[in-house]
Amino acid sequence: MNTTSSVANTPLANGSAASDDAPKIEAVDGSAAKQSSAPPTNQDALNTKTLKQIFQLSPIGMTILDLSGSFLSANQSFCEAVGYGEYELIGRSFSELTHPEDVSLLKSLGDQLLEGDRQHFQIETRHWSKDEKPLHVGLTVTMVRDGQQRPICFLIQVINLTEQKWMEAQLSHQAFYDELTGLANRALFVNRLEQAVIRLERNASSQCAVLFLDLDRFKVINDSLGHSIGDQLLTALAGRLEACIRRCDTLARLGGDEFSILLEEIDGIEDALAVCDRVHNSLKTPFKLGSYEVFANISIGIVCSSAGYEKSSDLLRNADTALYRAKAQGGACHTVFDQTMHQRAVALWQMATQAQFAVQRKELKLHYQPIINVKHNQVVGVEALIRWYHPQHGIISPGEFIPVMEETGVITMIGQWVLKEACMQVGQWQKQLADDCIIKLNVNLSARQLMQHDLAQQIKAILDETGFPAENLRLEITETAIMHNSAEACEVLKELRAISVELCIDDFGIGYSSLSRLQQLPIDILKIDRSFVQNIGENGENTHIIRTIIDLATHLSMDIVAEGVETKAQLDGLRALGCSNIQGFYFAKPMKPEKALQFIIETNQPANSMNQIQ
Ligand code: C2E
Ligand code: MG
Ligand code: MG
């Protein structure tokens, strides 16, 4: 804030108080102003007219008020700031332009100046401009007195702080709010959670819940439809989530496609589960983003706190653990945290880091799930699905341990074992089956495996070693894995295609519009994701999507397999749409090798096949 002494010793104002014969004005610092009887100096050039000009041209807004607080004069900067001409201001009260809440303080400080308690004061106040825009200003108000110390007028210097205040508000908003969605950010969420935990300590009977939410396959949408559509999805999702909670709950975006919800003062876990149901229901209608219609699923981890002893960081970690479990179960679901989950997560991590020993100890086994052609009522292939028979933890599903193995990198070694084992197994079956009964073998590849540039050589070596025909091997790769490392992945896929292996896109789903990009890849088969198959028939949109996928795949000469078929209605729906390769519990769950072979033999015998399939 600037000081006032340099401008205050001047008879500036128009009107009576500032006329030429007005009493001499004393400087703010108390020293007497120079008298005209002094010897002529350059200072004489500072006659009244010049001083008025200086006042008018000063870049600092200045105004002079009479003792009742009405305008006597205002310079150009002041007039520009408030949007009034000087002639419009003269005679009006300064308080008319002042925010009502600031008027009384200004008045009492003005009274102190009049009573001589102080010479000037500085204050930040709020005002209105002529076009009713708010102004935030810094005022320096100086009492101008004559030689006998009688008050003459108030000199007010004004610095416009409006922009600076706006910037400050923006910065503090950015510190606590997410720019894209306008929701609370992680910092604000953690702060609110900490407050909630403190309140819980005081009131042991109250409960709160933390929900961690993560979009399933967001990366695919982002990569295939573009980041702008991805951003639109996140914003639209934020709106839908907001509609699922109460005003007193906190919804935050933690980053990327991760959101969190803090539910306070709930009656129990049922309240949190009800929110999850609302969230899942809200996603049943697709998002209309630009020219696309996009379905999104979300996984939710829930932790409920009724005891005041927990730390907020524990709640966050446990909600994350529960989310991880929900993801491992295939997504589009919610999971409530319990303590065993944490112990299991820690144990799993330790186990997975030593997973290579699981192979040596023969704890890893392959199960096989048949793929059936319903036109010919024949098993045409099997998918090899890994299981971990853990001595302490029982059978662990791949959804639980594959992500950890991916992170630790063990997956590349396990992947090789899976391929070799499956090739040997199905190669052996093939010898026992009739010559015209060809069983294709589907093996899953992880994203990490796809990043190995010598993957094709590794696979070729395994095919050579086991004698399994390359053309009977189908490698399943998820859309996400391809999109993760699209350029490199494309090269590896081409090399695999060159050794005659067939390539299949697994869990083909939301990003059906990304087919345009997939057509540049050497893909032979699309596997329609289970989530679409589940609601076929009941929901016109899914039927429409599956029809579109089938049409496009046919156009691009790709085969279609529908996975996750559980009911006759789903089977009939798919058949009606012309999809004849079916995998799912309706026909068979993944089975141990002996049972899988038995199923193939029984199904592919003409006499039995009709009974099984129809
Ligand atoms: P995926 O490749 O999409 O495999 C299909 C999954 O859906 C299997 O789960 C299978 O048991 C399940 N499934 C099949 N039909 C139905 C049905 O009608 N209803 C329901 N609810 N589920 C059905 P699984 O065996 O738990 O495998 C989960 C995922 O783990 C697999 O999904 C695959 O991505 C991964 N995975 C499994 N084995 C391997 C492997 O050897 N290597 C790699 N990298 N990933 C694997
Ligand atoms: Mg698969
Ligand atoms: Mg799949």
Automatic annotation (TrEMBL):
NCBIfam families: GGDEF, sensory_box. Residues 206-339 form the GGDEF domain. Residues 1-45 are annotated as: Disordered. It comes from Phormidesmis priestleyi Ana. The lineage of its organism: Bacteria, Bacillati, Cyanobacteriota, Cyanophyceae, Leptolyngbyales. Transmembrane segments: none annotated. InterPro entries: Biofilm_reg_signaling, EAL_dom, EAL_sf, GGDEF_dom, Nucleotide_cyclase, PAS, PAS-like_dom_sf, PAS_fold. Residues 47-117 form the PAS domain. It holds the Pfam family EAL. Residues 348-604 form the EAL domain. Coiled coil: none annotated. Residues 1-17, 33-45 have a biased composition (Polar residues). PROSITE patterns: EAL, GGDEF, PAS. This is EAL domain. One of its GO terms (biological process) is regulation of DNA-templated transcription. Gene3D superfamilies: 3.30.70.270, EAL domain (3.20.20.450), PAS domain (3.30.450.20).
